[in-house]
Amino acid sequence: MHKLEPEPGFDVRRVQPFEATKRYICGGCGNAIEPGVGHVVAVPHDAVDLRRHWHWGCWSARRRRRPLG
Questions:
Q1: Which of 7, 10, 23, 40 is most buried (most C-beta within 10 Å)?
Q2: Which DSSP string do the residues of 40-66 spell out, in sequence order?
Q3: What percent of the chain lies above the pLDDT cut of 70?
Q4: Quick check: 34 and 15 in contact, CB under 8 A?
């Protein structure tokens, strides 16, 4: 199982496969996270409307990759 590290300034939680009922776009790579795929959701403390869903690998690599956009 993936270890979920705290991230300063964010509420971060694990989304279990059975909870993932919609298709999301990953905030790290921009590719789809399909229904039924476990992933991470990150919500900035100061901007809850900027909540993003991330693949596990993308979240783990967030400090090593260039931001989207």
A1: 40
A2: EEEEETT-GGG-EEE-HHHHHTTTTSP
A3: 88
A4: no
